[in-house]
Design a protein that fits this description.
CATH superfamily of the domain at 74-158: Immunoglobulins
Strand content: 35-45%
Order of helices and strands: EEEEEEEEEEEHEEEHEE
Distance between the termini: 60 Å
Number of helices: 2
CATH class of the domain at 74-158: Mainly Beta
CATH architecture of the domain at 74-158: Sandwich
CATH topology of the domain at 74-158: Immunoglobulin-like
Amino acid sequence: QSENVLGYFINVERIPNSCSHSPNRISLKERKILVNLSLAYYRVNISAYNEAGESPRAIYIVPEFSGTDLPGQIRVKSQGTSAVVTWTPEYNPKCFVVDWGTGKEDMHMKIVTTATGNFTLDNFQPYKLYKIMVHASDVCQCESFIRHEKTFGVTHFYSVEGVPRTGPANVTILNITKHSALVKWTQIAAEDRLGFLQGYRISYTDSSRKKSLGKS
């Protein structure tokens, strides 16, 4: 039915969105649009319209990007349920926009207008991996962040780390030869790690049980 479509409505909504109003609606005739976004989470709503009305919306969540070439580094120092976040700005924008949370369904947003490069966040739960993003913006009106903010840095941290809840699963030994064997296992799921995983330790004993060997 595309020949009857007059155009498309697109909403690009930042997650989280602390604005009190809905995002700006973009109307266009083409079936593509180029938008410049920061590394924050975004929800894109697309609907078609004709003379009779508007179609249901298609919803797309912009996937998470890796920030390997970001200009700045963020440092986090845990203080119990609080954390002090510091960074060194490359320039002094009018404000910084900070996102933190455990994922796109649990993100919080804070606008920092001071140029000190540090602030305190609280209400962190132990054993959970948090993501913190700092974006710079020269326009600090809420509705303008989508067009003006640029991601300064991204980091992850635990307020309190614990021992992994579970061990490796599905351990198998393959390609056994006289002097070697391939050991494989399923890695521990992120929600069961309870801290930054540094590696795995493998212990094995020879058949006479006289030698106990190990490898990390």
